[in-house]
Model the fold of this input.
Amino acid sequence: RHREGPAKDHRELEEAASRTEEGRRRVLQVAYEGWGMNELMILAEIGSNVFPFSRDRMEAFVIAASEAGADAVKVQLYRADHFPEHERASKAATEFPRVQFMDFVSMAHAAGLRAGASVFDEDAVDLVAKHGDFIKLATREQDNATLIFASRATGLTVLRSVSCSRLPTGS
Done:
């Protein structure tokens, strides 16, 4: 299991984020501790590509990622009702079945890959914390402090999409 770096104290992060924009930048910095910003990692997005879902299809994507030289694979753990009304129908058709997450992780490990997920809610954080190697904050959740703190409290590496974060110019 890859659990680099100690988990930061949840209260420390909350206090830092609430004080100033500097605190927000610190939370971003803490989110990258673990793998580190200088380590290149090839992350294969399995995401919604497994649909229509089947175990064989999922395994084929994991094996293809490994053969292509990926270091890790991830899926997206969202629920359609999390999205705005106009997106729900399309999202419902591509929800990754959470009951398959353990199987996904086992397949990834058998292929020599780390396994994780983009999380959109605290139930997904809990699932990944129990079985996965890393958490990726979903792009639309970049400013969700509750999800950030819950993710960091797991002790897993937390990846974020910095290009989507709203840092002030000159940061």
About this structure: The two ends are 34 Å apart (CA to CA). The first strand starts at residue 43 and ends at 45.
